[in-house]
Design brief:
Helix content is 23%, strand content 11%. The protein is built from 2 helices and 2 strands, in the order αββα. The longest helix has 14 residues, at 7-20.
């Protein structure tokens, strides 16, 4: 596992987040079914608002939010919106 997401401290942080945060995905806004198996695409995961790659603190609860596994994976480490490529002509 990447640095900052293993060991006792990480497990304790995730347990607090699971207990304290509402079961609503902060990325898509839909409810999260807490009874789903952890491998299910719609299961609960903890999401880093500011990714670890960009210097986010893995243990700061203010940097964590609940998310569906699918939404979290789709976002990845990219916190910036996807920009459209520039084209040489105007498309209708």
């Amino acid at each position: 596992m990447p640095a900052g997401r293993d060991g006792r401290r990480w497990r304790q942080t995730v347990a607090i987040a699971r207990r304290e945060f509402p079961p609503v995905c902060w990325l898509c806004g839909l409810p999260i079914d807490m009874s789903l198996h952890h491998n299910d695409p719609m299961s609960w995961t903890v999401e880093h608002k500011l990714s670890l790659a960009e210097g986010g603190d893995p243990y700061d609860l203010n940097n964590l939010a609940p998310a569906h596994r699918r939404c979290n994976s789709k976002k990845g480490a990219n916190n910036r919106p996807v920009e459209r490529p520039k084209t040489s002509r105007r498309w209708k």
